[in-house]
Specification:
Layout lengths: L4 H12 L9 E6 L12 E4 L30 E4 L1 E5 L11 E5 L9 E4 L5 E3 L4 E9 L6 E8 L5 E9 L5 E8 L4 E10 L5 E10 L12 H8 L5 E4 L3 H4 L22 E2 L15 E2 L5 H11 L2 E6 L22 H15 L5 H8 L10 E4 L7 H16 L4 E5 L7 H13 L3 E8 L1 H6 L13 E9 L8 H16 L4 E6 L3 E3 L10 E3 L4 E3 L1 H11 L4 E7 L2 E2 L6 E8 L4 E8 L5 E8 L9 E8 L18 E4 L6 E6 L3 E8 L1
Parallel strand pairs: 1-30, 2-14, 2-22, 14-17, 17-18, 18-19, 19-20, 20-21, 21-22, 23-24
Antiparallel strand pairs: 1-26, 3-6, 4-5, 5-13, 6-12, 7-12, 8-11, 8-13, 9-10, 9-12, 15-16, 24-25, 26-27, 26-28, 28-29, 29-34, 30-33, 31-32, 31-34
Helix pairs in contact: 5-6, 7-8, 10-11
Bound molecules: alpha-L-arabinofuranose.
């Protein structure tokens, strides 16, 4: 009997131990007649936390470490020489009282001054300008002066400028330094050049060219990377950082607003969470505080989503109930939540609305939601959440509240958490999962059978962890496949945010992360491009996509979903081919109106034959999206999907 060609190929493949490279055409169908559930504008978003030097030393563009001399070791990050005193009498800023007094060294050949090592160096770029600023005061009458220098790794002076002090009162002085060459590990050095002593505080250096040119600004390349994600929601400021290692070190938003110089320093809980990645110099200056984070949400077009402490210190690190605020002690925590809504939305005549206006934003930030508690579990949580819900609902009935289902995506605590969130009628429940590739692929169907009657889902932290904990293509492809399940269930899943967002190559505690950087460069991981492809191709409504009348959730290694975008009149189809073979797929737009002509149809692909490849600072474009035109045959799109590919088709008419 004559064997069919496919069978012969298959036999050879079995003998050679390889997979067949061709397959039968698979027929998918997108029902374009029935427009399905709306996809929320908040669907794909960003989660920012100050971990991995994501804020100070990262997105926040300040280049000086310990600028206010408030670290427990007052001169950490600084090397002093000559006669330098740390003092706190009659300070400029009551919340950050320490400052340095530079005295004449007492000999014509001796020098007084100090230099700063920055965050893993002070990195400057050729011809770029940097704003040096300092608060200064003369302890005695007279004139004081300093010379400010940027020096390279071998102590050569790159650029220098002088500053003169003329007042016995604290005053801000500044000067611009232009870097003659690029230097990754420069330092800032200050010499006292007068006989008279000077007091210095809040010694600061920013690139002039920050995101939107703001003086207390953000690193441009990193903020741009956030903007380019097209995020719908921006969750901040954490993460475990919300809870603190103890209540003392929890994130308190009120300490992060108002005059930058007077924001009280906090210890960063990621300083010592992992002793194998220990960073004793990791603190939070809050120079990028809640005002700046709201402003960033606005800049990048995302809904702000603050997370506040519910009175529980990190539950992983505090097993003793006494470490937490008791239910009776919650009033100030609840007041913080109510005041935050006033800060974001209140009229400028209100206490907190006025502060927002004084900080430069009289119009409201239009805050619509808040999470109370980060990753909490057990009975301790709902009994604390309940009074928050009552107080917020009483004052702001339509405000959305997000509760937590704990750190795991299943199990006893997870079930209990969901049951309690239903009882408390939170609007959404925040689920977290850091799992392996197999979990991600199997869980593409996770939400298909979820209860539709309770709160909606917010996948607030997730990332596929391969064993090497790399941001490799395998992890990204599995996330892309898994996320088809978010979109298919958009009636239920209303927001999702990958975590963590940023990591400094010299200072990370946790990996994988979406965006990596050093002091001069940044790189968008392959996982970033998956998020971006979803963010840019959201659509407004789900469309049913089936193969043999079933959703495409892993059969033949394929995962697929479809959406309709009302405003651009575009059908959007996303397919992940996780299999080892190229697949021929025929996608029929069932019910397409006669006479529809597609003006522009494209396929944007992320593909690599190498699952272990990653984008790095040295090789940032190892796997990046590639766009090609595609053509339909009437209402059918015939495609060949290479093995290990995530493809997004946009069919626009
Ligand atoms: O994203 C890193 C950490 O993972 C978050 O801070 C915490 O919420 C989770 O455990």
């Amino acid at each position: 009997m004559k064997k069919p060609l496919f069978f012969v190929v298959l036999m050879f493949s079995v003998i050679l131990g390889t997979q067949p490279t061709i397959s039968q055409t698979l027929n998918m169908q997108v029902d374009v007649k029935k427009v399905g559930s709306p996809i929320q504008s908040t669907m794909y978003g960003i989660f920012f936390e100050d971990i991995n030097y994501g804020a100070d030393g990262g997105l926040y563009a300040e280049m000086i470490k310990n600028r206010s001399f408030e670290f427990p070791q007052s001169l950490l990050g600084w090397t002093s020489f000559g006669k330098v005193e740390v003092r706190d009498d009659k300070p400029a800023f009551t919340n950050n009282p320490h400052f340095v007094r530079l005295h004449d060294a007492g000999h014509s050949d001796k020098q007084t001054g100090l230099d700063n090592e920055g965050f893993f160096g002070v990195a400057v770029k050729q011809n770029a300008t940097y704003r040096f600023s300092v608060w200064g005061r003369l302890p005695e009458a007279g004139t004081g002066s300093i010379r400010v220098e940027l020096i390279d790794g071998a102590s050569n002076v790159l650029v220098k400028e002088n500053l003169t002090f003329d007042s016995k009162e604290w005053k801000k002085y500044q000067v611009i330094l232009k870097a003659p060459k690029t230097e990754a590990k420069a330092r800032l050095r200050i010499f006292l050049t007068s006989k008279a002593a000077v007091d210095l505080d809040h010694v600061s250096l920013f690139p002039v060219d920050t995101w939107k040119g703001r003086e207390n600004g953000l690193r441009k390349d990193l903020a741009q990377a956030l903007y380019d994600l097209h995020p719908g929601v921006f969750r901040f400021p954490g993460g475990c950082i919300v809870e603190g290692t103890d209540l003392e070190t929890r994130y308190q938003w009120k300490n992060t607003v108002g005059q930058v110089e007077n924001r009280k320093l906090n210890e960063n809980r990621w300083q010592y969470t992992f002793t194998h990645r220990f960073f004793p110099d990791y603190f939070q200056t809050y120079g990028m505080g809640f005002f700046e984070l709201f402003q960033l949400s606005e800049d990048i077009g995302a809904e702000p989503l603050p997370v506040l402490s519910c009175g529980l210190a990190c539950q992983f690190q505090n097993k003793d109930e006494k470490a937490h605020a008791s239910v009776k002690e919650l009033d100030p925590y609840i007041q913080d939540a109510l005041d935050l809504i006033e800060f974001a939305n209140g009229d400028v005549t209100t206490k907190w609305g006025k502060l927002r206006a004084d900080m430069g934003h009289p119009t409201p930030f239009n805050l619509k939601m808040m999470a109370v508690g980060n990753e909490q579990w057990g009975a301790l949580y709902p009994e604390r959440l309940e009074p928050f819900v009552k107080a917020i609902r009483a004052k702001y009935p339509t405000f959305k509240i997000i509760g937590s289902a704990g750190p795991s995506p299943d199990g006893k605590d997870f079930e209990f958490g969901w049951k309690e969130m239903k009882r408390l009628k939170t609007d959404l429940v925040d689920e977290h999962y850091y799992k392996d590739p197999k979990w991600f692929l199997t869980n593409a169907t996770r939400y298909d059978a979820y209860d539709r009657k309770g709160p909606k889902v917010f996948a607030g932290e997730y990332a596929c962890h391969v064993q090497s904990v790399k941001n490799n293509f395998e992890s990204a492809l599995c996330e892309a496949a898994f996320m088809t399940g978010f979109e298919r269930n958009a009636d239920l899943v209303q927001m999702c945010t990958y975590a963590p967002l940023f990591a400094h190559v010299d200072g990370y505690q946790w990996r994988p992360d979406l965006i990596w950087f050093d002091n001069l460069r940044s790189v968008r991981s392959v996982n970033y491009y998956v998020q971006q492809l979803y963010g840019m191709n959201k659509g407004t409504n789900v469309l049913a996509l089936t193969m043999n009348n079933q959703p495409v959730t892993g059969k033949d290694g394929l995962y697929a979903t479809a959406a309709w975008d009302k405003s651009s009149k575009t059908y959007i189809i996303k397919i992940a081919n996780t299999s080892d073979k190229e697949q021929s797929v025929s996608i029929m737009l069932a019910g397409l109106k006669k006479g529809v002509v597609f003006a522009k149809s494209t396929c944007t692909k992320l593909h690599s034959p190498d699952l272990d490849v990653e984008n790095t600072l040295e090789n940032p474009n190892a796997v990046v999206p590639v766009e090609i035109p595609v053509t339909l045959d009437g209402n059918v799109l015939n495609v060949k999907l290479e093995s290990k590919t995530f493809a997004v088709y946009r069919l626009q008419y």
